[in-house]
Amino acid sequence: MAPKRGFSDEAVADAVMQVFWTHGYRATSIDDLATATGVRKGSLHNAFGNKEDLFVIAIERYAKDFSNRMADKADDADPLVAVPAFFRAVTSRMTEAHTPPGCLTSAACSEFGELPPRAKNAVREVVEQTRARLAKFASAAVNSGLLPATTDPKAQADLWFAITRGMAALHKVTGDTDAVERIAETVIAQLSGRATAP
To answer: Which residues mediate DNA binding here (predicted)?
Structure first.
C-alpha cells in the first residue's frame, strides 16, 4: 500500500491556480508553487509534474470552478436563464475577496505566444469551450426571437466573449468590482429588454 500523502490534489490545484492567476506563467517559479502549496519541490514534481503540468492543472481547475458556478444553468435551453448565469458567474469570481483581480484565462491569453505547447493547448481548449457555450446561448436567443433573425450566433458569441475579456482587463487594472457588475447587468438587461419590448 502506498504511503498516504500529506496534501490533497484539490488543495494543490487551488493553490497553484492562485499563483498563476496572480503572477502569470512566465513570472511564476517552481519555488513560488512549492511555497504556495506547502509541498516540497521534489514531492510536488513527483506527484504532479513540472511547471507546465501544474499550469495545465490550474487552468483545468479554473474552468471546473466556472462550470460549478453556472451549475445546471449551463444546459438551460432558455437564454434568459443561461446568459445571465454566465455573466454573473464571470463577475462572481472577479468580485470575491480571496481571488486575484481579473481572470486567469485572460492573463494566460496575454502571454499565449510564450506558453509551452501543452499549456497553450489547455488555454485554447478553455477559450474554444467558452465560445461554443456562448454560441449555443446566442443560437437559442435567435431562435426564440430575443436576437434578430439575421444575427450570426458565432459572431454574437464572440462579442459576448470579448466583453468578458474587457471586464477582466478593467478589473485587473482598476479592481473596480462595481464596474464589472454594471457591465454584466447591462448585457443581461439588453437581452431581457428584447423579451419585454412590445
So the answer is: 29-48
Distance CA 90, CA 102 (A): 10
Mean pLDDT, contiguous 10-residue spans, the chain (198 residues): 63 96 96 96 94 98 89 81 94 88 94 97 97 96 95 98 97 95 96 63
**Residue whose C-alpha cell reads 481547475 in the numeric block:** 61
Spatial CA neighbour of 65 closest among 134, 10, 124: 10
The three cell numbers locating residue 101: 483581480
| HEC-encoded secondary structure of 54-77 | HHHHHHHHHHHHHHHHHHHHHHCC
For residue 176, give the 3-state DSSP assignment: coil
List the beta strands (DSSP E) in 63-123: none
Torsion, CA 22, CA 23, CA 29, CA 32, rounded to 10: -30
Task: Please state whether 145 falls in left (phi above 0), alpha (psi between -120 and 50) or beta.
Answer: left
What CA–CA distances, in Å, run from 195 to 31, 80, 92, 157, 183?
53, 9, 25, 19, 19
Residue 1 in 3-state DSSP?
coil
Residue 179 cell numbers, joined: 464596474
What the chain holds in terms of domains, given with CATH numbers, is 62-196 (1.10.357.10)
Per-residue pLDDT, 97: 83
pLDDT of residue 194: 60
